[in-house]
Amino acid sequence: MISDMSQSSSLSPQPPPLPPPPSPPPPQAVYAASNIDNSVINVNMVKNLSSMVVCPLVEVKSKFDAEFRRFSVARVSLTSVELFRKLVEQLHHLSEIPFTLCYTDPHGDLLPINNDENFRKAIDSARPILRLLLQRKGESLEERYGYGLDAIKKKNRISRFLAGATGTALPSRAYDISMPQDFRQVSAIIDVDVVPECHRRVRLCKHGSDKPLGFYIRDGTSVRVTQQGLLKLPGIFISRLVPGGLAESTGLLAVNDEVLEVNGIEVAGKSLDQVTDM
């Protein structure tokens, strides 16, 4: 019995030895790895903090009729008056309504915002709030009689009261002051880089009016410099400017100026009547 058991035990395979347990990493390696992780986290935190730098804001309070809006705009984004007008236009839904844009300065005067220069002044006057007034075009009294008169009106309240009591009226401004964007172009010097330096191509704009251009022409003799020398040719010249006319008011034409072309058509070889009809 015992011998049989010993034989059977000798025939059975013995199990392989178990591998030794892995040794833990040295503390120095763990410490180095933790330092690397911390350094990465610190770099990311610095990047996030640098991207979260707060830009200075400008507080704005705008009014159109009985509608008020309050909002803030980053000062760095206020680059032009056109972008600012589009922003205000979207906030008040004025895409189809022509309007004027004004602001109240620290002295209480109502001043326009219609170009980049006074737009920058308006932003600088925001202490702490930029107060805007939007009005439909044609409804603003300042647009008709001039801006910056609020302070003068406040100072003359007693004078107006006394003038009303005595029956004498204060002098009023009877002329209109239009916004710069309402001006119409009446003249321009064009094709400067095309025509010779001794010539000038001028555009006079009549805007559909039946009024003449405001000058008279005459025929004369023009002296041209050619390869064969001086050459005398017939020419058309300005003889007189109409006082207060379009040509005189622009200052681009003068008496004795030679007319070389009209509406792109050369006048060389044409009679005085033909040029007049042109």
From TrEMBL:
Domain of life: Eukaryota
Region annotation (Disordered) ranges: 1-27
A biological process from GO: cell division
Keywords: Cell cycle, Cell division, Cell junction, Cell membrane, Cytoplasm, Membrane, Tight junction
Major place of residence: other
Pfam families the record matches: PB1 (PF00564), PDZ (PF00595)
Protein name: Partitioning defective 6 homolog beta
